[in-house]
Each structure stands twice: as C-alpha cells, then as structure tokens.
Amino acid sequence: MKIALAKDGDAVAPHFGRCEGYEIVEITEGEVAERETIPNPGHEPGELPKMLNGLGVDAIVAGGMGPRAQGFFDEYGIQTLTGVSGSLNEIIEAIAWGKLEAGGDNTCHHT
Q: Among 35, 52, 76, 109, which is least packed by CB within 10 angstroms?
C-alpha cells in the first residue's frame, strides 16, 4: 500500500492542498518499505490527485479536505482519510500497524 501524507514540518497538515509537501510512504507487510518527501506542486484543482495517482498512491491522509477535492480523489480510486492530526512518524506507525483512526473533525471547510 502506498500512502501520501500532507505534511507541514514533521506533522500532518490541516489542509491537504496548502501544505508544504507530501510524505509518500510504501508499506509492505506492516513495515515501511520506502519513504520519500515531495514538495507541494501548487494548489490547482484536480492536479494533485492526478499526480499522486501517477505515483501509484492508494490513499491520502490529511487533517482536512474539501468535498470537491475528495471527489477528484474518488475519480482515481484514491481513498481520502481526513480528520487526522499528529506527528508523521506516529501516523505512519499507526498505518503500518493497521490502527490509524481517521474521520475526526475535517479541518477544511471549503465547498
């Protein structure tokens, strides 16, 4: 499974499209197999889902995301996990162990 985490510093960003970058993590058999950081290419509607799909991302994790953006990700079959906060390392560990709890308050209220 390949996951993109919207990041600001060492934490999950509150808004996926306005973050500084994305931590791309591949998890195989409960272990981090690969990890890289890519910069945010800019906030153009529909472009980020397209780019992440091209990288083989299965899911995106962020504090928040508007419904329009979620629709773009749905078009590519990329799962959106919002309402997530905390340090990247803690969240990546929770994902690897199958214990990520998403669905808290979506910190983005765009339409």
A: 109
